[in-house]
Write a structure and sequence with these properties.
Layout lengths: L3 H14 L13 E5 L5 E6 L8 H9 L7 E6 L11 H7 L4 E6 L9 H7 L3 E4 L3 H7 L1 H9 L3 E9 L17 H13 L2 E5 H7 L15 E5 L19 E6 L12 E4 L10 H10 L4 E4 L3 H9 L5 E7 L24 E9 L2 E8 L7
Parallel strand pairs: 3-4, 4-5, 6-11, 6-12, 7-8, 7-11, 8-9, 9-10
Antiparallel strand pairs: 1-2, 1-3, 12-14, 13-14
Helix pairs in contact: 3-4
Length: 366
């Protein structure tokens, strides 16, 4: 039975893990808290960057000799393999830790087994404390390992009646400066930002992170099937961040720099590119989390393909009555096939409302 102290320590580890969002790919985000034999916090840490020390190592270094006989609270099962760093299970043993509490088991077959190694050495090991919170914080990496594709977060900004622009196509600005600043936080936490050809034509977006010190710039991806939207000199081709322009295998793209062109097969049905191929290509480049910022057509294609893992909508207290809707054709023709969502958070951002939701498990009768 977990104690209040156990819950507090693991909650702190979950909070620490979130500090690594956007900078650890292709590794997971992990937090660790070490308490000494008396239960007092002796050290804490989080995985800061791929190739750097893991969370347990940072926490053990901070704890020093106080770790001996203590407890380690870790959001992910301590790894059991040697990669660019040594196995964390062995590091915990060497430090004299007597108890390990971890939230989520490691699904990576190359790294799992740390819990068994610790138990075999006589360490008390417990799993599952605050597992839901730890899973949510590490959703991108877990999706990547379990499904072999990046985690997709679709973000949109709309009026209260669901419009992303007015009838004359003007859209700047529907939401507040506070909401737009929050979008840059989402970009900073993502490995890649994706928009479609319509957004590229209408807005000439730069897609970089602004206003966040030390942020790692995400890969910028434009889905430009026929290679007609991105022109030489487009802002997305500047040197702020790396860029890929995804085009069809047969599209003429000689006007684009060769190193930014990603050729993909067209979708088997309908317009656009094969989204499975796009996500596989990004996965192969170590992209764990994709922020989908495209307009209604691209968003509709991702929803239709079942490739949206989370939705973040910024709703402004504004009415337009006409103009494009946030979501285009998603292949949903009747209410019984509606994609139901579970709302996980609602937050005021300036005058706007940010709603976070995830696809709900299928309900009987739907």
């Amino acid at each position: 039975m977990a104690t209040a102290a156990d819950i507090t320590a693991m909650g702190r580890a979950v909070t620490l893990a979130a500090r690594g969002l956007g900078s650890t790919s292709p590794n997971p985000v992990v937090g660790c808290v070490i308490t000494d034999a008396s239960g007092a916090v002796a050290g804490e840490g989080f995985h800061q960057r791929a190739g750097g020390p893991h969370a347990e190592v940072h926490a053990l270094r901070a704890a020093g000799e106080r770790a001996r006989g203590g407890t380690a609270y870790v959001t992910l099962e301590p790894c059991n393999h040697t990669g660019r760093t040594g196995p964390c299970a062995q590091a915990l043993l060497d430090a004299g830790i007597s108890r390990v509490v971890y939230a989520v088991g490691d699904p990576n077959p190359q790294a799992t087994g740390g819990a068994d190694t610790l138990r075999a050495a006589g360490v008390q090991v417990e799993q599952g404390l605050l597992a839901d919170q730890a899973e949510a914080g590490n959703a991108a990496w877990l999706t990547s390992v379990r499904l072999g594709r990046p985690y997709v977060l679709w973000k949109y900004a709309a009026t209260l009646d669901g419009r992303i622009a007015a009838a004359d196509s003007t859209s700047r600005w529907i939401t507040s400066p506070e909401a737009r600043a929050d979008v840059h936080r989402l970009r900073a936490e993502a490995d890649a930002v994706i928009v479609g050809s319509g957004t590229a034509r209408a807005d000439d977006p730069q897609l970089g992170v602004r206003g966040i010190d030390g942020a790692t710039q995400p890969l910028r991806v434009v889905v430009d099937t026929n290679a007609t939207a991105v022109k030489p000199g487009a802002r997305v081709l500047d040197d702020t961040a790396p860029t890929l322009i995804a085009v069809a295998d047969d599209a003429p793209a000689g006007h684009l720099p060769e190193d930014v062109v990603l050729r993909l097969p067209r979708a088997a049905t309908g317009p656009g590119l094969d989204l499975d191929a796009l996500l596989a290509a990004l996965h192969g480049r170590g992209v764990l989390c994709v922020l989908l910022e495209g307009g209604p057509t691209l968003a509709g294609a991702f929803v239709a393909a079942g490739k949206v893992d989370k939705v973040v909508g910024y709703l402004a207290p504004v009415l337009l009555g006409a103009g494009p809707a946030a979501l285009g054709d998603a292949g949903i023709t009747t209410i019984s096939r509606a994609l139901r969502l579970d709302v996980t958070e609602t937050v005021r951002i300036g005058p706007d409302l940010r709603i976070t939701a995830a696809p709900a498990p299928a309900r009987k009768g739907n």
